[in-house]
Each structure stands twice: as structure tokens, then as C-alpha cells.
Amino acid sequence: MTTDAPQGTDRSFLFVLGSSRPDGNTEALARAAAEQLPADVPQRWVDLTRLPLPDFQDGRHETGGWPAGENEEILRQATLEATDIVLASPLYWYTLSAHTKRYLDYWSGWLSVPGLDFKERMAGRTLWGVTVMADRDEVVADGLKTTLNHTAAYLRMRFGGVLFGNGSRPGQVRDDERAMIRAKTFFQGATPVARFPYEDGTAER
Ligand SMILES: Cc1cc2nc3c(=O)[nH]c(=O)nc-3n(C[C@H](O)[C@H](O)[C@H](O)COP(=O)(O)O)c2cc1C
């Protein structure tokens, strides 16, 4: 059986900005891609520096759980409301920024909130990545791409891939012509159900 991705107005995008500085390259590239989305597709933008989360504490196996803070609640709701989640993280040490990684760590907490059904509700949604790095060769961002693919695979989400850009000084990514061209069609790309490498590809697509 094929599970089709939601189309048109059934879609809503959440952009999660994970840079540790305002007006950075990653946001600029994500906005260039978002400009191409149809006007009737809602977009919500959250900046993790403006909704700071404390370091995640693993309370999954404790009784009683732990109270969610206000920012956690906002992010949890925004995450569950979106059909498409775009992690816009600069490349930091060849992977996601700490802000972005911490937000993902909270997904582990949400997975064990009784009655939230986080895993079931995330299945079939689409995860996307946008990243900008100082290095000109995107092969060095393989780790980030693998992290996002496997995260999507674990949750039975679709994965739209990663939009890469080059830049260091804020705004520099606008000079990366290849990235700006790719941004124009990025969200029109294929969104296959994500798979772990050990899955044989014959299962449901
Ligand atoms: C903590 C830190 C780690 C970084 N690590 C890498 C890296 O591993 N590879 C790389 O090419 N660039 C690295 N950079 C450069 C950033 O990816 C680059 O400046 C990018 O444009 C930042 O995105 P932003 O403008 O959205 O903040 C690093 C920058 C910082 C501050």
C-alpha cells in the first residue's frame, strides 16, 4: 500500500531555525526556498534562540514524567501541527548545531509522553534539511544528512533531503549561485519514505 504525502493546502511547513546568530546564511537559504512555496501553504518560522530549551533531561523511564516548560510546549505543538518540518541548521562540526540537536532530543521525550502518540502522528510527515557551511564541498556534511535521514526513518517519516549552501560571513550564501538555483525547486523534490540502510527497499514505498 502506498501512503501519499499530503498535497497542496493540506500541507503546512514548520521552519526550525537552528543557528546561534540572527540573520544567518542558513535562514537566508531556507527563506529563498520557502519563497517558492505556494501562497496557500501555511509557513511557521521558529527560531530556537528565541525559544530556548534547557538541556534535555532523559526522564523517559521515570514515573510521573516531568513538567514541560512553556517553550517546549510551543515547539511541541508547532511540530505536531506541521505536515512538513524543515530543520535549518548551520553545519557545526560536521553535523547539526547544538540548538537543533537539542530540539531533536526533545522528540525523544515526546515519544514517551502518555497519550501523545508522537511516533504514530509523525509517521507520513516529511522532514527536510537546509544547511550552510564554510566548506565548499558538501560531502563533509554527510553526517548531518545521515542524521536527518535516520531520524526520519525511525519515525517512518518521508525525507526530502538537504539543501546545501556555502558561506561563512552572514549573507554570503546569496553569492552561492548553485545553492540559490537549487533553492528554487528544493521543495518540489521527491519525498520518499525514509529507510535505514539495512532495510532492503522492497517494503512499502
Ligand atoms: C561552532 C561552529 C562550528 C562550525 N563548524 C563547521 C564545520 O564543521 N564545517 C564547515 O564547513 N563550517 C563550519 N562552520 C562554519 C559555519 O557553518 C558557517 O559560518 C555558516 O555560514 C553558519 O551559518 P549561519 O550563517 O546560518 O549561522 C562552523 C561555525 C561555527 C560557529
UniProtKB/TrEMBL annotation:
InterPro entries: Flavodoxin_fold, Flavoprotein-like_sf, ISF_SsuE-like
Residue span, Flavodoxin-like fold domain: 14-167
A Pfam family assignment: Flavodoxin_2
Keywords: Flavoprotein, FMN
Membrane spanning residue stretches: none
Protein name: NAD(P)H-dependent oxidoreductase
